[in-house]
Amino acid sequence: MPSFELRDLGGMGYSEAFALQQELVEKRQQGLIPDQLLIVEHPHVITLGRNGRVENLLAGPEVLRRAGISFHHTDRGGDITYHGPGQVVGYPIVDLREWRRDVAAYVRSVEQVLIGALAELGIRAERMAGATGVWVDGKKIAAIGVHISRWVTSHGFALNHATDLSYFQYIVPCGLSRPVTSMAELGCRAGRGEVVASLGRNFSRVFGRDMEMAA
Amino acid sequence: MIDVVMPQMGESIVEGTLTKWLKKPGDRIERDEPLFEISTDKVDTEIPSPSAGVLGEVLVEEGRTVAINTVVARIDEKGEGAAPSQKPAGAATPPPPIPSSPPLPAAAPAPAAGEPSEEELGPLSPLVRKMAREHNLELRQIKGTGAGGRITKQDVEAYMAAQAAAPVPPSPAPSVHPTAHGEAAPPPPRVEAPKARVEPMSIMRSRIAEHMVLSKRTSAHVTTVHRIDMTSVARIRQRSKEEVKARYGYSLTFLPFFTRAAAEALRAFPIVNASIEGNNIIYHNEINIGIAVALEGGLIVPVIRRADELNVLGLQRAIVDLAARARSRQLKPEEVHGGTFSVTNFGSNGSLFGTPVISQPQVAILGVGVVEKAPVVMDDAIAIRHVSLTGLTFDHRLIDGALADEFMQKIKSVLENWSEQVL
Q: Inter-chain contact A103–B40, Cβ cutoff 8 Å?
């Protein structure tokens, strides 16, 4: 079975993580490294996908500045989203040529990784037809947005673990006016380490890759 | 010509949206270089070029969704090789501007036309060619310092820097040269003053623009206008104005009286203090009144929370405070959210009455017209009274005209029979 590297990078700025992904995507395209699952935690940041609509940002630049939130245009799919402390952000860098050349299947599999991990931690999450992401009782617990270059993926998912959900007031998440939730809000006490480990196990299972821990 | 098609990105995927062309018609492209981007559910994908050459026709515009295997562009594999050899050296027409939307005819390997051949200048990298095209540079004027006198990226940059520093920027002035028929080439087009100025909208402007259209699309806007006799209020205001100013430092305007009357009417008609969610009516228990404040280049609607618990002085203080902080951009995020009804006072700019746009997801907005003296018939005599034409713009999905008028009658009755002292 091919392998993947799980790298928990802890706290990392959005631009820094973006640059790292680009570097790893290039290495992956050249076959220099195996598939990757990067896990990071971003400071407060709102990002807008290439096809996102800026009206889904509800706060002006001044309000964001005062709230300590930075704003980035980015090249992933999907609309607007928020990242911040307490959120487990995952950036899988997968060469789909060695898995399946199917972007829809890829997105469904990322959802499956999240649903599997949440199930291990006692939360019953599900898909919602026509609304990519992972949902618990109609509330969004994880968002997904992906970029693909020469069949290598970047960007990925953001799972609300212990996120301060009040920060979502500044945006219409993913352009959908549906509520958000977090694992903590649902009463789950699992620590960040447990969440990351569970995501790694489920990634391994869903994508059929042996896990290697990397620094 | 090689056809470029919308690729199949997965078994279940039957179409894709072309979101961005990364190359323009006429651009040279290498095999596997990203050519365009497509978007399928939550995934943006860069699609590499299937072949090297020059991008000829672009058949699908940005933003269009097409079925897989639709031809989206054609690439001319021979591209630039063909054209330069036909041109005599020295023919220095600047490359034509490349239109972004209407596709160029397939047969036009246009940008190559003005480019010198490689025999003349030695091999040129695609980057140097691209820079020369983009900046409209005459490559023959650039001194090459690379191997064998080859022009490098640094040479182009140095040339551009030197040009930028020159006191009179040398125009690309194509020298008049004889064509095959011996006629003089037309003179270069005169540079005319632009007829318009293009400026991107600020984030605030584009958010307002979107919200206005969203609101018009969402609500069935209807406006009813009532004439309100403000003579009693004017009298009370006149009496208290100076003392309020002396004691609290702010002017007493008509706006807090209208706001107070609106709060009372909202209490009497909860359906005006509501919003619609799907097929449900959400009745808000709090009366949070947004006050429209004009800003330079935009507007914002800060909210007075539980406005029904404030008297005229409290409302005036809140209005002055919110407006001042709105203008100095110091409102907290929670102060612009959660409004359940809005008041806009265009009367302060002299407007008689207006038809404002509802702030979503609210269902009504009170538009206050100017308060001024006017002749009014009272008991078959003509009297001079303070009057205001004040209107309610309401969402007819939820509120019917009769109810809107009852609501306005309530406001009218509170204002016309004002008895509460300000101080």
A: yes
How far is Cα of residue B172 from the mean position of the Cα atoms in its chain?
Answer: 36
Q: Under an 8 A CB cutoff, do B203 and A51 touch?
A: no
* Interface residue B211 vs chain A (CB under 8 A): yes
Answer whether B116's CB lies under 8 Å from B140's CB. Answer: yes
Q: Tell me how far apart the alpha carbons of residues B345 and A141 are, in angstroms, rounded to a whole number.
A: 42
> Could you say which of B20, B42, B48 has the minimum Cβ distance to residue A77?
B42
Q: Which residue has the tokens 């680009």?
A: A22
Enter the ipTM.
0.79
- Rounded CA gap, B84 and A56, in Å? 50
B-chain residues near A102 (CB < 8 A): 9-13
Region of B34 on the Ramachandran plot (φ > 0 left; ψ -120 to 50 alpha; else beta): beta
pLDDT tens-place values along chain A, 215 residues long:
789 999 999 999 999 999 999 999 999 999 999 999 999 999 999 998 877 777 778 877 788 888 889 999 888 888 889 999 999 999 999 999 999 989 999 999 999 999 999 999 999 999 998 889 999 998 999 999 999 998 999 999 999 999 999 888 888 766 666 789 999 999 999 999 999 999 999 999 999 999 887 65
Inter-chain contacts counted by CB atoms under 8 A, chains A and B? 104
> How many whole angstroms separate alpha carbon B354 and alpha carbon B338?
24
* Closest in B39, B206, B332 to A55, CB measured: B206
Instruction: Tell me if residue B301 falls in helix, strand or coil.
Output: coil
Please give the residue of chain A at the shortest CA–CA distance from B334.
A169
Compute the distance between CA of residue A55 and CA of residue A171 in angstroms, rounded to an integer: 9
Residue B361 to chain A, least CA–CA distance (Å)? 12
pTM of the model: 0.48
β-strand pairing of B293-295 with B274-277: unpaired
Q: Which amino acid is residue A178, in one-letter code?
A: R
Separation between Cα atoms, residue B88 and residue B91, nearest integer Å: 6
Whole-number average pLDDT of chain B = 81
In this structure, are residues B120 and B76 in contact, taking their beta carbons and an 8 Å threshold? Answer: no
Residue A6: Cβ-neighbour burial (10 angstroms; 0-12, 13-18, 19+): buried
